[in-house]
Specification:
The protein is mainly beta. It contains one helix and four strands, in the order H-E-E-E-E. A four-stranded antiparallel sheet has the order 1-2-3-4, with no helix packed on it. The longest helix is centred in the N-terminal third of the chain and has 4 residues. The protein is globular. It starts with a helix and ends in a 6-residue tail after the last strand. The mean pLDDT is 91.
Length: 52
């Protein structure tokens, strides 16, 4: 399933699966299921290849 919010870059994390990594928090997006990372409080974006 793909969310319209994801199309505009407004990804939302699955709160129960948020993980603290070395420099940021990461999770999967509720809408599209892709890996995302937190940019700042309340703002999430898709993880790039260099984040992994």
């Amino acid at each position: 399933m793909f969310s319209l919010k994801c199309l505009f870059g407004l990804h939302q994390p699955v709160r129960s699966s948020v993980v603290r990594e070395a420099l940021y928090y990461s999770s999967r997006c509720k809408g599209c299921g892709k890996p995302i990372r937190r940019l700042r409080k309340g703002r999430w974006a898709l993880k790039s290849g260099k984040d992994r």
